[in-house]
Design a protein that fits this description.
By secondary structure, the chain is mainly alpha-helical. 71% of the residues lie in helices and 3% in strands. The protein has a two-stranded antiparallel ribbon. A hairpin with a 2-residue loop joins strand 1 and strand 2. Helix 1 packs antiparallel against helix 2. The protein is elongated, with a radius of gyration of 24 Å.
Length: 117
């Protein structure tokens, strides 16, 4: 069976969108984790363990700069995860139904794999 040209392009385009959403989400997650660790360990409130002054900087950013980076990266990650869920809505619904039906068949004593159309 051959797919029409527009269907192939739509599939490739959808795959590219899904790919880039995942890649950029991973970058956002890494930025959130890294900035969170910096805020927690290197530039904590009040100077922290090492009694750094409140004007201390790490990689050219003070605590407020790292906090801003952390918040922006976190919000960006949340937006991308929402897009990820929206892009996979069909799959999520299909899997939820399949698993609910499967659980119902097991409860009723039907054998697993005996599909009813």
């Amino acid at each position: 069976m051959r797919m029409a040209g527009s269907a192939v392009r739509a599939t490739v385009s959808r795959c590219a969108v899904l790919y880039w959403v995942v890649v950029v989400s991973a970058v956002g997650l890494a930025a959130t984790a890294a900035s969170g660790l910096v805020l927690w360990l290197a530039l904590p409130r009040g100077g922290g363990r090492w009694n750094w002054s409140t004007s201390a900087e790490l990689l050219g950013l003070g605590r407020q700069g790292w906090l801003d980076l952390h918040i922006v990266a976190s919000l960006g990650f949340l937006v991308l995860m929402a897009a990820h869920v929206v892009l996979h809505t069909t799959w999520i619904v299909r899997e939820t139904r399949r698993r609910a039906l499967s659980a119902g068949r097991r409860r009723s004593g039907e054998r697993y794999g005996s599909e009813v159309s």
